[in-house]
Amino acid sequence: MAERPRRWPVAARLGLLILLGYAAIAALLYARQDALVYYPAHTRVAATQTDFEVPVGDIRLRGWRVNPGRRDALLYFGGNAERVESWREPFADWFTDRTVYLVAYRGYGASDGEPSEAAILADALAIYDRVRRDHPDGDIGVVGRSLGSGVAAHVAAHRPVARLALVTPFDGLAEVGQAHYPWLPVRWLMHERYPSAELLQDFGGEVLVLRAGRDAVVPPANTDRLLQALPRPARVVDFAGAGHNDLSDDGRYGAALARFMRTADGPPPGATRR
């Protein structure tokens, strides 16, 4: 009689299925990470609704200029699904002594192109350089929120920035992903990394961090690791009861940013050094 083919033990077959499923999830995360990082769909507006643009190669970045004509300037880099134009009125009130530039990432708002880390970081430097030409003798402050904190860190590492404000920042985007998916090798899979802690390890300017104590998007531990990596203590305003998205509902939010950017003033209300 012919010998019957040997069948794998049930445990081995189950282990193989688990391994294949794990590999499939990891492959899906790798393939779709751009869609998980960038959410431009609901930010789109017509170019005619903007009042400022920066040509970068064959594309144009577009946005809004608030309080034109001031000597000093402020660049704002927003979150991964943020309509930056929503800050025009608050920023006009908070930063009366600065011209504020709210430029949408490529693929966002009315800006051309498709978002990616390499492109967004290069664009941010191009925006800074354009603003520097328009404010040759002024101070340029930078504010970055969430994803934008990684963009702001890149600018501060490569251009003169005296005052850097980071809202719900992280040590690195890959590290945030690893915190959310501890059972996956996220650090190995992610190519969109935004390594803020590494970029700012030699930054010599003043840093303000607005920290959300109940942040479910950027875990507070990732914010704390960024603070630990800075070469000098940052000013920290801790919104202990706030989450990632409602942090700015607190009245201290605008007050802290405005006071920090007024170089002659003291520390923002509620700020501590860490």
Class by alpha and beta content: alpha/beta
> In percent, how helical is the residue content?
25-40%
Oligomer: single chain
CATH architecture tag: 3-Layer(aba) Sandwich
Name the strands of the widest sheet in spatial order: 1-2-4-3-5-6-7-8-9
Percent of sequence in beta strands: 15-25%
Tally of DSSP β-strands: 9
Radius of gyration: 22 Å
Quick tags:
274 residues; alpha/beta; globular; 9-stranded mixed β-sheet; Rossmann fold
List the helices and strands and how they pair.
Layout: H1 10-31, H2 33-37, E1 52-56, E2 59-66, E3 72-77, H3 88-94, E4 98-103, H4 117-134, E5 140-145, H5 147-158, E6 163-167, H6 173-180, H7 186-189, H8 196-199, E7 206-212, H9 220-229, E8 235-239, H10 251-261, E9 272-273
Can you give a write-up of this model?
With 274 residues, this protein is α/β, with parallel strands linked by helices. The chain has a single domain, classed as Rossmann fold. It is built from 10 helices and 9 strands. A 9-stranded mixed sheet has the order 1-2-4-3-5-6-7-8-9, sandwiched between helices. Helix 4 crosses helix 5. The protein is globular, with a radius of gyration of 22 Å. It starts with 9 loop residues before the first helix and ends with a strand.
